[in-house]
Q: What sequence folds into this?
């Protein structure tokens, strides 16, 4: 039986943050799987910068941009009736034709890609990180200008048509089965893993150099997140202002790219009079993240979107305590101080609780145990995914091309 030729699509830009780092982790595992199993992977990305980053990990990738005709096919696909025309004329998009020319058997989308809508002949694997447009439809980034409707089309077709659906939490499998009638046995749960960059140890002098670059002293509260409304920076700022009223001054460091929420955050900082307590250092290079986590007194993450997030695992990986919404207790377990993400005072109390004797040591130990548990679950998920890929290999060998 000939090797399975799997296309691995890395469609998220580096600036997306966790949406880039987790697919990178998936790719590195797939590279090892292919080498051990005698199968092949072909990596594609629309970003030249991604191709350069992959070279650091010894991975060769191909540039595959989205063409004008692909966008036209996608637009018509959203219109619905075009399906009938495409079926009747047996039309394939330029995107799919290019993959077929490359000898691809299965396409693995490492994010919830709209490009799966362009596939009529090739089977695919899809990754779904969350269902937050359903969980919190009040946020503009998942509601405005048809975004909610677009996601419904993507999620509905992806979860029912995909040969395999990769998720990061058991709760998400339940949601997809309930909302879209996904077949449960097609789902594979592979929890998030810390970024390959954060897991690398570094000399103390290198960490000090990173902090000096951003004019930081160790002991700050750290929140790495893009500036979206759902990231809930405003509640965090209100909590820091509340602490100052109690005579407690905390230093806060924010990093991430602006996704439309930065102006409101800047206004809140001025309104609360926190300019001397808050450092916004913008988007930082992946290699600097480990130092920023290690220099922090705690990761404070008030995001409304879950059920899982990558920063808590990265904080646990370097021994940094985590302060996290109680809504995501299923991920955090006992390895975080929990709070109500709609209540600044609850968050302020959580930050104070961090200073209680023995709390940091307890959280550090619990974080390492939690990370080990997720590592075992990830191993199980990888084994299950590998079995699905072998099943696809066998079935595709019976299908004429």
A:
């Amino acid at each position: 039986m000939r090797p399975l030729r799997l296309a691995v699509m890395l469609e998220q830009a580096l600036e997306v943050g966790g949406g880039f780092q987790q697919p990178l982790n998936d790719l590195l595992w797939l590279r090892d799987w292919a080498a051990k199993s005698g199968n092949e992977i072909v990596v594609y990305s629309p970003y030249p910068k991604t191709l350069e980053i992959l070279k650091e990990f010894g991975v060769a990738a191909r540039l595959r941009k989205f063409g004008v005709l692909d966008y036209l096919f996608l637009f018509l696909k959203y219109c619905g009736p075009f399906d009938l025309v495409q079926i009747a004329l047996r039309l394939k998009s330029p995107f799919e034709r290019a993959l077929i020319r490359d000898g691809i058997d299965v396409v693995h989308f490492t994010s919830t890609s709209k490009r799966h809508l362009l596939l009529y002949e090739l089977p695919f694997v899809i990754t779904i990180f969350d269902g937050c447009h359903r969980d919190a439809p009040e946020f503009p980034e998942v509601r405005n200008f048809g975004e909610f409707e677009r996601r419904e089309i993507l999620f509905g077709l992806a979860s029912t048509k995909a040969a395999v659906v990769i998720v990061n939490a058991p709760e998400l499998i339940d949601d997809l089965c309930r909302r879209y009638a996904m077949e449960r046995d097609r789902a594979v749960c592979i929890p998030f893993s810390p970024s390959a960059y954060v897991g690398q140890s570094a000399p103390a002098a290198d960490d000090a150099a990173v902090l000096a670059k951003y004019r930081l002293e160790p002991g700050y509260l750290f929140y790495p997140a893009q500036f979206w409304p759902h990231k809930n920076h405003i509640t965090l700022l209100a909590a820091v202002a509340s602490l100052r009223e109690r005579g407690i001054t905390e230093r806060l460091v924010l990093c991430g790219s602006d996704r439309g929420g930065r102006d409101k955050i800047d206004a809140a900082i001025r309104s609360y009079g926190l300019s001397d307590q808050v450092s916004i250092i913008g988007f930082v290079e992946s290699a600097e993240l480990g130092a920023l986590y290690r220099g922090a007194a705690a990761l404070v993450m008030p995001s409304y979107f879950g059920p899982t997030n990558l920063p808590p695992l990265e904080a646990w990986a370097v021994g940094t305590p985590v302060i996290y919404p109680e809504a995501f207790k299923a991920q955090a377990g006992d390895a975080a101080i929990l709070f109500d993400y709609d209540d600044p005072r609850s968050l302020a109390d959580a930050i104070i609780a961090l200073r209680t004797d023995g709390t940091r040591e307890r959280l550090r130990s619990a974080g390492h145990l939690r990370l080990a548990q997720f590592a075992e679950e990830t191993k199980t998920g990888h084994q299950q995914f590998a079995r699905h890929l072998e099943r696809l290999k066998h079935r595709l060998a019976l299908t004429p091309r």
Observations:
- The chain has a mean pLDDT of 91.
- The two ends are 15 Å apart (CA to CA).
- The chain is about 45% helix and 15% strand.
